[in-house]
């Protein structure tokens, strides 16, 4: 083994990133492409009558105006795509389901003309009763979709096909023991109504897709985290073999879940294919807010202890508002529902988690995959329960946290997830055991902690191909997309370590489905473990090949590899000499391939439990010390410590940046970040109105802490970290506010107004479900 | 209507025919080819489109190109790897996806030209209009302080 893993090697292309020389999708010249602008729905829920396109079509520079009906005539029901339900058309057909939904696409010589022509389209609507929120959706009799249409991606949704008269597209239930009876018999119960609002990812790079037809093949360059998924979607949409679809990417300028599954790609493919033109679609910032959001979620929940302080019951009713299209909401509903009781030993647990259609922009994956919304509930509850019992919130959690070998309420045995180590690390960092100066004027000080648990996406598939070049440099082909997390760098480190090379000599090829092999997705914190294992295996396969060549060269089996090359006793050959000699050519290449696949056991239909719901768990904890100005309600973060168990840090600096970056994003969610909708319309969908964390929102001190509890089957013991840091930020801050002021707020974000209002309320527990 | 303008970008003169309503952002990206200048919001709220004109920062997404006839513009491409700010950002790992970073680099150049020894508070105040969604702010703040030290060691 080499010395590449465990080093904070800078991203290999860092100087280029700093100077803006790393090129992105939107930078690519497109020649005589048709620029596309979209005419969008002005109604939240309506039947589409006539779409008037004549005026737009008559404008100089307009090539074509395409409607949903036009696409339907050519592609039929195949225009409906989506990862869980095939429910979303690239252009609305028959019905519109949210304000801002694309209804017609204008193709023109330039974007300005296209946008002007899109404004000249008008549509006759027959308005239908709108479903604005969870309450309308669950209690009313208007339905966003006439019937449910599961996609072919997830076999366990098949039974939902054709179900009518409901806005609930998926329901996950966990039944472990008798939680209701245990609550009734318990000594102390806390109950809450929690709300986490919809938010938006706002990666600074805007989504952009360029699609064209080349010799009967559909080719595309697009901002996606999921090139392998998009290839399959386009293949299904156009009824083409996978070999006639090519999806390529560039490094992304951030994503956080925004650029995955079906965004601009199905529409771009359909327009390019049906018109034969190269098309370029770019979303403006305002349009990006309509492409996807984070699920707003309501949680009604309770946690109960017996007279000895043992946790005996946890109950949660979780409602995810998935908007007009399900996207991956049903997956979020199950994966997050199963951890709604938190990382604790609890004798009885009951969870109902529902994914609910409304007439709003679709919600999809966002860093944390629905788990921050349920963490908001369980970390507030356990904190309040500790206060009610007169227990120390850190000690109380410590007592109940799942340890190695414990069976979690959802039936899976916990392993390689050091919750206690993470909690201890953040408590220690913020001086939990030290006396605190509370403040005696209008400014009060408090401390809070929170713990998070999340499953890694399972089952998933990763593949890697490695070419060793004759000069002992190497080319690694994977479909993992580097969007800032630094995957190209750590994958090179893993391969280099196995082969005793300098990782700077390994080039990672950008995802191109013509060349790079299938990889499920770059999401769910899965790449370090899954793709990292495929890369470890492919490097090991390459090492075996080189040792085989060397055995031939030496005429002996006893060969070792180190940084100087290959050795047999005192005999030595370098890799360049070996490959040159083996093939008789300079510049020759040696190729190896490897696969890494994980399996799961599907949830039991009755209990929702699974002996293996996931390959492994992420464990994280957050500790906060803050002050609150009781006159203005303003929170000031003095110290925020965020810890994540990553098994083994392949690159400690990149791990710290994932932890601190997630924490900063989470500070926004805790204190101000929210997408505001009024009657289904986004009303703060510009960056003048939508508040994001700036450098001014940094805590006085921000401490990322790496906890390394090695994973038995991770590459070098490693697992991912992209989401770990964000899980507990909001509840840790709210728990510190509770500690400072004695009031419990259950609606995010904790705006100054909400804190002042809470101080003036007698009952601290409230529900404001949107 | 189009107007011919002359702009010097990173020391190189360009003669450009621009529409009267063309944005400096689009002209720099499409006619000059400096794609480090990026649209993040279109309303001057994120800083990804920042350029320096005569050393002063400009949100190019709000600027009409015709008004920059005769201007001397600097984009991040125009700074080489030995530049104090660029090298400090590299050494402090002050980029993740990096999409917003050219804007931060140029804002930092502007700050250090005005104030050779900014305090942490002054760095924060000067950079508060730029958004880094990856959350690289701790490293950025460190990098600006390091660049100040490189430019004028104590």
Automatic annotation (TrEMBL), chain A:
Domain Aldehyde oxidase/xanthine dehydrogenase a/b hammerhead span(s) in chain numbering: 19-129
Q: Which residues cross the membrane?
A: none
The record's annotation in SUPFAM superfamilies points to:
CO dehydrogenase molybdoprotein N-domain-like (SSF54665), Molybdenum cofactor-binding domain (SSF56003)
Which InterPro entries does the UniProt entry name for this protein? Ald_Oxase/Xan_DH_a/b, Ald_Oxase/Xan_DH_a/b_sf, Ald_Oxase/xanthine_DH-like, AldOxase/xan_DH_MoCoBD1, AldOxase/xan_DH_MoCoBD2, AldOxase/xan_DH_Mopterin-bd_sf
Q: Name one Pfam family in it.
A: Ald_Xan_dh_C
Renumbered to this chain, the signal peptide range is none
Gene Ontology MF terms in the entry:
iron ion binding; oxidoreductase activity
The name this protein carries in UniProt is CO/xanthine dehydrogenase Mo-binding subunit
* Annotated organism of origin: Actinophytocola algeriensis
Q: What is the lineage of its organism?
A: Bacteria, Bacillati, Actinomycetota, Actinomycetes, Pseudonocardiales
TrEMBL record, chain B:
Q: Where is the 2Fe-2S ferredoxin-type domain?
A: 3-79
Matching InterPro entries: 2Fe-2S-bd, 2Fe-2S-bd_dom_sf, 2Fe-2S_ferredoxin-like_sf, 2Fe-2S_ferredoxin-type, 2Fe2S_fd_BS, Beta-grasp_dom_sf, Diverse_Oxidoreductases
Q: Keyword Lyase, does the record have it?
A: no
Q: Which GO terms describe its molecular function?
A: 2 iron, 2 sulfur cluster binding; metal ion binding; oxidoreductase activity
Classify the source by domain of life: Bacteria
What keywords were assigned to this record? 2Fe-2S, Iron, Iron-sulfur, Metal-binding, Oxidoreductase
Secretion signal span:
none
| Keyword Transmembrane part of the UniProt annotation | no
What PANTHER family does the database record attribute to this sequence? Answer: OXIDOREDUCTASE WITH IRON-SULFUR SUBUNIT
Protein's recorded name: Aerobic-type carbon monoxide dehydrogenase small subunit (CoxS/CutS family)
Instruction: State the taxonomy lineage.
Output: Bacteria, Bacillati, Actinomycetota, Actinomycetes, Pseudonocardiales
């Amino acid at each position: 083994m080499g010395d590449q893993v465990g080093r904070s090697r800078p991203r290999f292309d860092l100087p280029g990133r700093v100077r803006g020389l790393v090129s992105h999708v939107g930078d690519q010249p497109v020649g005589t492409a048709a620029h596309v602008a979209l005419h969008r729905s002005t109604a939240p829920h309506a039947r589409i009558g006539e779409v008037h396109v004549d005026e737009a079509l008559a404008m100089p520079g307009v090539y074509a105006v395409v409607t949903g009906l036009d696409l339907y005539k050519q592609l039929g029901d195949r225009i409906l795509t989506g990862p869980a339900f095939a429910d979303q058309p690239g252009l609305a057909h028959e019905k519109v389901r949210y304000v801002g939904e694309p209804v017609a696409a204008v193709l023109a010589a330039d974007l300005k003309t296209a946008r002007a022509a899109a404004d000249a389209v008008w549509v006759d609507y027959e308005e239908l009763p709108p479903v604005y929120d969870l309450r309308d959706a669950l209690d009313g009799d208007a339905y966003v979709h006439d019937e449910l249409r599961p996609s072919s991606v997830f076999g366990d949704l098949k039974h939902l096909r054709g179900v009518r008269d409901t806005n609930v597209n998926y329901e996950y239930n966990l039944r472990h023991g008798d939680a209701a009876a245990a609550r009734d018999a318990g000594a102390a119960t806390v109950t809450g109504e929690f709300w986490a609002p919809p938010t938006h990812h706002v990666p600074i790079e805007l989504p952009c897709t360029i699609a064209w037809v080349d010799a009967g093949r559909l080719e595309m360059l697009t901002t996606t985290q999921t090139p392998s998924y998009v290839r399959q979607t386009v293949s299904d949409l156009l009824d083409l073999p996978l070999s006639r679809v090519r999806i390529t990417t560039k490094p992304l300028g951030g994503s956080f879940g925004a650029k995955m599954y079906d965004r601009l790609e199905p529409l771009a493919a359909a327009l390019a294919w049906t018109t034969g033109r190269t098309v370029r679609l770019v979303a403006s910032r305002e349009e990006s807010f309509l492409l996807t959001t984070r699920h707003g979620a309501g949680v009604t929940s309770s946690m109960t202890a017996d007279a000895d302080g043992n946790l005996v019951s946890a109950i949660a009713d979780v409602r995810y508002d998935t908007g007009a299209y399900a996207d991956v909401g049903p997956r979020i509903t199950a994966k997050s529902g199963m951890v709604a009781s938190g990382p604790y030993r609890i004798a009885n647990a009951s969870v109902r988690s529902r994914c609910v259609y409304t007439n709003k922009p679709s919600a999809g994956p966002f860093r944390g995959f629905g788990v921050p919304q349920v963490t908001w509930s369980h970390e507030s509850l356990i904190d309040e329960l500790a206060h009610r019992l007169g227990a120390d919130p850190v000690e109380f959690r410590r007592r109940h946290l799942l340890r190695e070998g414990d069976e979690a309420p959802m039936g899976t045995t916990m392993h390689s997830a050091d919750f206690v180590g993470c909690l201890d690390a953040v408590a220690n960092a913020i001086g939990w055991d030290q006396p605190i100066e509370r403040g005696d004027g209008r400014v009060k000080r408090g401390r809070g902690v929170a713990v998070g648990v999340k499953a890694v996406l399972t089952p998933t598939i990763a593949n890697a191909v490695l070419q060793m070049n004759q000069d002992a440099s190497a080319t690694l082909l994977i479909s993992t997309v580097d969007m800032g997390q630094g995957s190209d760098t750590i994958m090179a480190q893993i391969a280099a370590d196995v082969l005793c090379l300098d990782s700077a000599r390994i080039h990672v090829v950008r995802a191109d489905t013509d060349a790079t092999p299938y990889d499920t997705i770059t999401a769910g914190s899965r790449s370090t473990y899954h793709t990292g294992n495929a890369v470890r295996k492919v490097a090991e396969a390459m090492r075996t090949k080189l040792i085989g060549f060397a055995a031939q060269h030496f005429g002996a089996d006893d060969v070792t590899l180190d940084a100087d090359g290959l050795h047999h006793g005192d005999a030595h050959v370098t890799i360049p000499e070996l490959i040159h000699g083996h093939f008789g050519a300079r510049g020759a290449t040696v190729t190896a391939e490897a696969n890494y696949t994980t399996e799961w056991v599907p949830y039991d239909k009755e209990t929702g439990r699974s002996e293996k719901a996931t390959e492994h768990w992420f464990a994280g904890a957050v500790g906060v010390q803050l002050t609150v100005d009781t006159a203005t309600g303003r929170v000031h973060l003095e110290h925020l410590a965020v810890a994540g168990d990553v098994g083994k840090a392949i690159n400690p600096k990149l791990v710290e940046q994932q932890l601190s970056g997630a924490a900063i994003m989470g500070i926004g969610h805790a204190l101000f970040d929210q997408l505001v909708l009024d009657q289904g319309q986004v009303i703060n969908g510009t960056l003048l109105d939508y508040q994001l964390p700036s450098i001014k929102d940094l805590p006085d001190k921000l401490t990322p802490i790496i906890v390394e509890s090695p994973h038995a089957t991770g590459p070098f013991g490693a697992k991912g970290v992209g989401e770990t840091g964000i899980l507990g930020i909001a509840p840790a801050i709210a728990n510190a506010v509770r500690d400072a002021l004695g009031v419990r707020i259950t609606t995010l974000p904790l705006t100054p107004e909400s804190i002042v209002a809470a101080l003036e309320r007698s009952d601290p527990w409230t529900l404001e479900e949107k | 209507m189009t107007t011919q303008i002359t702009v010097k970008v990173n020391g190189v003169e360009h003669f450009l025919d621009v529409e009267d309503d063309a944005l400096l952002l689009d002209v720099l990206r499409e006619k000059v080819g400096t794609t480090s200048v990026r649209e993040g919001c279109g309303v001057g709220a994120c800083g990804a489109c920042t350029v320096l004109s005569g050393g002063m920062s400009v949100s190019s997404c709000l600027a009409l190109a015709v008004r920059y006839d005769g201007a001397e513009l600097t984009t991040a491409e125009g700074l080489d790897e030995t530049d104090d700010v660029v090298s400090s950002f590299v050494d402090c790992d002050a980029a993740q996806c990096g999409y917003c970073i050219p804007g931060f680099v140029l804002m930092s150049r502007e700050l250090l030209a005005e104030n050779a020894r900014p305090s942490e508070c002054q760095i924060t105040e000067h950079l508060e209009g730029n958004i880094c969604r990856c959350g690289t702010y701790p490293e950025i703040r460190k990098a600006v302080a390091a660049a100040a030290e490189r430019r004028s060691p104590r």
